[in-house]
Write a structure and sequence with these properties.
alpha/beta, binds zinc ion, about 35% helix, 10 helices, 11 strands, six-stranded mixed sheet, five-stranded mixed sheet
Length: about 250
Amino acid sequence: MPRTAIISDIHSNLHALTAVIEDVQQQLCSDLVCLGDTVGYNAYPRECLEYIRSLNCPVVRGNHDEEVLKGEYLKMNPVAKQAMEWTRQQLDESHIQWLARLPFVRLVRSQFVMVHATLDTPKNWFYILNASDATSSFNHQALPLCFHGHTHMPRVFYKDGPQVTENTESMAQLSAQGEVIISLQAGVKYFMNVGAVGQSRDRDPRASYAIFDSDAQTVTFRRVAYDVQAAHDAVLAVGLPPYLAERLLIGQ
Ligand code: ZN
C-alpha cells in the first residue's frame, strides 16, 4: 500500500503521539517516517523516543535531538534549555546513541526527501516562514517532493518554473475542515511542512501530520484532537516550566 504517514516535532508529547498513531492506522497508512525533534519541551521524552525507535522507520535529526545529544544547549532560550536539561536526565546511553545515529537528510524509496529544517543548510536550523525563505532549499532539492518540520506550522511551498509560491489558500482551510488534500502536479516541486505532533504553534491546539499517497499523488494534511489537558498536566507534574504546559492549550 502506498500511503506513508509523515510526522514531525513530537516533542515528548505522548498523548499527542498516541492519538496521531491511532489516526494513522485508521487512515490505512502502510508506512511512517519521522522528521525529527522527537524529544524536548514536554513530559515523555523516554516513552516517545522508545516508541519511534521501536518502529524502525526512517527518522532524521531535529535541533532538539541534536542539542540533547550534545548536551550544550547553546542556541536555546532559558525555558527550552531548562526543558533540555531535564530531558537529558530522562534518557540513558542507548537513547543518546540512537539520536547520534540520526542523519540530517534522508531519501525515502526514491519518492521523497525528508529533512527537519532546510535542504540547503540542514545543520543550521533555519526557519522557513515564507516563500522567499524556501527558495534556497528548493535550489538543493532534486526530487519533486520534500517534507520538513521545525516551525511547527503546516505549510505548502511549491516551485513552478523559477517561481516559488506558498499555497495559503488551501492551507487556510485546514483548521476549519480538519483535513486538506493537495494534488501534486507533474513538473512542480513541493517543499511541505507537516506541522507538529506535540507542540502546535498555529493557534489550533490539535496535532498535525500528513499522508503521502504515491498512487494518487496526493498529500493529505490532517489535524488530530488529543487530550491536551492531560499533556498540560503532565508537563506541570514533572516540574517543567508552566509556560510549556500553557502553550499546549492554546496551540502557540
Ligand atoms: Zn520542534
